Amino acid sequence: MTDLVQWAALAPLLALAGAFVNGLFGRSLKEPAPGIVGSVAVGAGFVLSLIAFFGVAGTGEAVRVGFGDFLTAGSFTLALGFHLDQLSVLMMLIITGVGFLIHVYSIGYMHGDPGYSRYFAQLNLFVASMLVLVMADSFVLMFVGWEGVGVCSFLLIGFWYRDLANASAGRKAFIVNRVGDVGFLLAMFLTFKVFGSLDIQTVSAMAPTMLYGSAVLTGIGLLYLLAAAGKSAQLPLHVWLPDAMAGPTPVSALIHAATMVTAGVYLIARTSAVYAVAPGALATVAWVGVLTALVAAIAAVGQTDIKRILAYSTISQVGFMIAAVGAGAYWAGIFHVLTHAFFKALLFLGAGSVIHALGGEQDVRKMGGLGRRMKVTGTTALIATLAIAGVPFLSGFFSKDAIVVATFTSGVLGGVGGEVLYALLMITAGITAFYMFRWYYLVFAGEERLERAVSDKVHESPSVMTVPLVILAVGSVLVGYLGLPAFLADNRIAAWLGHATAAGEFSHPSVATEWLLLLASVLVAFIGLALGYWVYVVGKGAMARRLGNTPLAGASRGAFGVDALYKALFVDTGSGTAEAVTLLDREVVDRGLVGLSGVVPLIGGLLRRWQSGQVRAYAFAMLLGAAGLLAAVALVGVLK
Amino acid sequence: MSFPGVLDIDWNVMAPAVSLLITAIVALVFGLSARDSRGPAAVALIGVLTAGIFAVAHLFSGNESAASFGLRYLGDVPATALTLVILLGTAMAILVSWDQLERGGMGQPEYYPLMLLSALGAVVMASAGDLITLILGLEIMSLPAYALSAWRTRDRQSEEAGMKYFLLGAFGSAMLIYGTALLYGASGSFVYGAVAAALQGGNLTLLATAGGALVLAGLGFKAALAPFHQWAPDVYTGAPTVVVTFMSVVIKVGAFAALLRIAATVFPALQPWLLTALAVIVALTLVVGNFTALMQRGLKRMLAYSSVAHAGYLGLALLAANHGGVAAAAFYLSVYALMNAGAFAVLTLVTDASDHGDDLERFAGLGRTRPGLAAAMAVFMLSLGGIPLLGGFTGKVLVFQATIDAGHVWLAVLGIATSVVALFYYFRVIAYMYFRESSHAPHTFRSTPARVAIAVALVGTVLLGILPGWWHTLLSVGPRFLAGY
């Protein structure tokens, strides 16, 4: 079985091969061909991941696939390899499974785009990088994937690069991510200094022997948190994700909802052994997650772009996941990654289907009633909306409930405001239900507010787009049952991931309390939905307009002004400095160098003159050289 | 510590050299009845491959202390590895010559036998464990090379190149032999290890050092170290490009293989100022090679000076022979053989049949007219310039590291500084290929064997750049280089 598992190492290579084929020969392929190549490459990766999954499930053992030593410097050896355990195999399934569906969907969505093959090349490259990220057995290789997904994200956000806004959105994402990347690099340096190794398993094995709660371990934890905040769009580095919606919608679904933005959660779960001995860092993780979840949820309420609402919702949901790993409930964080991958990809693809049908319209104020004319899109979007809102018996309910309960019972957060975090998350959950109701109602229900020219063209998307929607909808309902609350049934996913992550400490309240917490979660979801119903359905537009004039709504629309703050703090000072440096460079350095560069040809010219072409001159030079050497012998002899 | 008998012959060690010798004879006889030069080329290629198989088999047999003729002919890892590099360079030269000889009207069948004999000489130099074997190897290598330089008969430049090379080569050989005589006089032995042992604590080191200086000068000529380098640009320019492909790789490897071994064994027993003198020579070479290359418009001449510059980088490794310099130099030579032969191979496809027209202008617009060729050339230029992820970069890093370990920090700094200068003239080629409009008719000459050579060089250059570990590990044998004495 181990042999079969090793084949999974081919998954990233397949995606890479797809990227190569599409990148090099894509232009000469006829339209659906690049899409089919891309989809097959990822689909085959999914099959390999499934095999690996069953292999790891069968033996319960992690499998390492080594590719030999990458470099040796002194006592340091860096081995290249993949580590396939319960955690990485699960992530592979998400990446290739959801990735495959989104590739298929893209065949229809990108129809007729002049960059058709470029799109699939970059999407394949993304899948390859993401797989490397989760499969890597060392921080260095993980960083390769980490940077790879960053580059692909940049390329795909700015996919329609002829529009300046798209290109600058890509640039913004890239630059903000760099801040996190610096955190990753520094964390690696510190890890190497402390552990003497960058192999993740070695570090994990050594971590429990380290001094509990020491400053340096906390430092490592905080730096990895900075890295995670960059990639996963957490406070204070969340500003790039809403702008990232400039990319094609399937890209938003795959990269900026289902997979890449969860890399930070994966990173913290992967290094759980380090966090287990750095409780201060872990509590910070939880606080960052909860605050991000709350702030982003409030910001989501005020948005009017169909995708920006979902973008803030994604930031908020990833905040839930970060909160979960911060509480030490690594399984709950990854569980939410799994369920979120389904319903959020579904929401985005549904949004894409709507945008596709409306010929590019993205303002929810100009939509409405579309559920009646786009049956499949509307129904699947409703399922996803209910799932993310936390309605019982759908996947989002179970994973979100697990997170909320974990903050309440976490041993790590016991002394640092676990109850406060619990309360804040409950409020956030309520707001989530509210803004998702608003999203669904404004787009799919209520009266039609379409422009006439658009209205006539509205149509359901082709089946190559709707079939993935249906599959994702089924997933959005079912995957939650993998992680039923422990007091009700076997929690399969907690048991599964328990093999690969450190175990946090949790108090075990009585069954009655558990029921109470569960009911509270249910109640919050329904309060949120009911509030939405009250404001938008009962109160019609009037109440929404009245609420829109409050200061909180203004803050929500502007996402608390973080972007403006960053522009004043960093962008303006940055460009000021740049201008000063340019001046210095042009007036001092350049002029100096231009003066200096006159010297180089002078030397060259002199040396060239030495090359006369005469044999006797050359022989003489040799003679002089040899004589010089011998004269030195004589001189040294005399001096002695 | 006893000497093995002089007549002990380990045929495993000798096999690559013997295969080359036999093939040279077969190709010569075969050439009598061959219609054109392609038949002998095929024979020669088979011979080189056979020799290569023997060398690989010996390299992996783990029998590193094997030797013949009582430590006079060695089969240790550096010798075998460098033999492989020589064979690789020869094979590439054969592939590049395959169609070019006929195209240039130089298809006399003796070409390939001479080339094999010259390669044989280089192999002997790489394997030499004593000074006499070294001189034998040097002459076996040089004499055919003189003839090959003048291969384009009726072409004055080519004849001039052959003549110049021969006259100055004789001069260089004389120095080497004189130096050998002095070393023998001081130590009473020719075998490197014995020379070093005899000089320990003796009072004849001054005499021996004078001998060492002359040996350095003689081999420095072949390696094109300044001020013994001036033949190189003239000969490279005049000789047929296919021959330069061979010379620039194989003769350089042979010379440096011999120099490395002497630097690791004999030099430490001599007075330390010889190394100071060598440091000055290396610094001079780095400056002269790089700065003069900067001034060249002709690509062939630019590559000639670039090969002088690379001799300087290899010279850095000589100074650090006992600080990982041997492995660094062997690695550098492996990459150098690939990227330099690759660059010359591209050059043969771009220039005229008469080898004229190597001006930079000729490369303008190559990126559009021959995208594959231009891409390959770009990779070779980047690698020669030492850009990361290509073999040339790894080679430079290893060499600089060894130099710093040996305490010559200022030389390493000079090496890095001159590398920056080098980037300019390598990048200029790329700039011409991609950013200039072509003013020439598209280049139409195509040669499948040359393309194979370019592909091999390309793969090797990239492979040694991204996965340098295995080859460097194989080369890092440290003290065993002293041949078990």
Largest sheet data of chain B: 2 strands, antiparallel
Q: What order do the strands of the largest sheet of chain B run in, or round the barrel if closed?
A: 1-2
Task: Please state the average pLDDT score of chain A.
Answer: 85
Helix content of chain B: over 70%
Total strand count of chain A, please? 2
Low-confidence stretches of chain B: 479-485
Gross morphology of chain A: globular
Evaluate the radius of gyration of chain B.
21 Å
Tell me the number of strands of chain B: 2
Order of helices and strands of chain B: HHEEHHHHHHHHHHHHHHHHH
Please tally the helical runs of chain A, counting DSSP H or I stretches of 4 or more residues.
29
The CA-CA distance between the termini of chain A, in Å, is: 76 Å
- Alpha-carbon distance between the two ends of chain B: 7 Å
Instruction: Name the quaternary structure.
Output: heterodimer
Percentage of residues assigned to helices of chain A: over 70%
**C-alpha Rg of chain A, in Å?**
29 Å
Low-confidence stretches of chain A: none
Kindly describe this structure.
The complex is a heterodimer of chains A (640) and B (485). In chain A, 74% of the residues lie in helices and 3% in strands. Chain A has a two-stranded antiparallel sheet with strand order 1-2. Chain A has 29 helices and two strands. Chain A has 640 residues and is mainly alpha-helical. Chain A has helices at residues 2-6, 10-25, 32-59, 86-109, 116-135, 139-157, 164-195, 200-206, 215-231, 240-243, 249-258, 263-270, 272-276, 279-301, 306-326, 330-357, 370-373, 375-389, 395-409, 418-444, 452-455, 463-478, 492-498, 511-538, 540-548, 551-557, 562-597, 599-610, 615-639, and strands at 63-73, 76-84. With 485 residues, chain B is mainly α. Chain B is built from 19 helices and two strands. Chain B has helices at residues 11-33, 38-60, 77-103, 111-127, 131-149, 156-187, 192-199, 205-223, 231-238, 241-265, 273-294, 299-319, 321-350, 366-369, 371-385, 391-405, 409-435, 448-466, 469-475, and strands at residues 67-68, 73-74. Chain B has a two-stranded antiparallel ribbon. Classes of the chains: A mainly alpha (640), B mainly alpha (485). At the A-B interface, strand 1, helix 28 and helix 29 of A face helix 6, helix 8, helix 9, helix 11 and helix 19 of B.
